[in-house]
């Protein structure tokens, strides 16, 4: 292929080379121009061949060379891509391990704080519960009953109207719940 292109270059630019420039500087720059132009055309033709264009005039040997070149290029690209992907995978695995470790540490802190909060509340709740159950007494039932009627733990709704007014002292005392139970909404 290169030989064919070289013959083409000589045939195309051969007539121009017979009219040499006047001085040596012009001659050397002109020869450099012709050489670079030929190289440029060869490279463009080679690029077209690699892209699958203009394959008709090529011989079987040239086609095999192009095929081998393409295969080696594809292998190099795949190797580079696989290397890059392996590097990324290793980085992501390191990041995953760091995140797992951070997650484990955070979970440990949360568990410790939950245990620290949970235990004092249990102790405090137990003390309050004992205090409520043993200290729930009404000091003066008759004076307090006129203004306040404690809720009892029964399922019937007791609403009463006292027509005698709040000054009446003959309000029957309500039965007291002596088991010390306080409804949940009062806690």
From TrEMBL:
Residues 26-116 form the K-box domain. GO terms for molecular function: DNA-binding transcription factor activity. It comes from the Eukaryota. GO terms for cellular component: nucleus. This is Mads-box transcription factor. It comes from Thalictrum thalictroides (Rue-anemone). The lineage of its organism: Eukaryota, Viridiplantae, Streptophyta, Embryophyta, Tracheophyta.
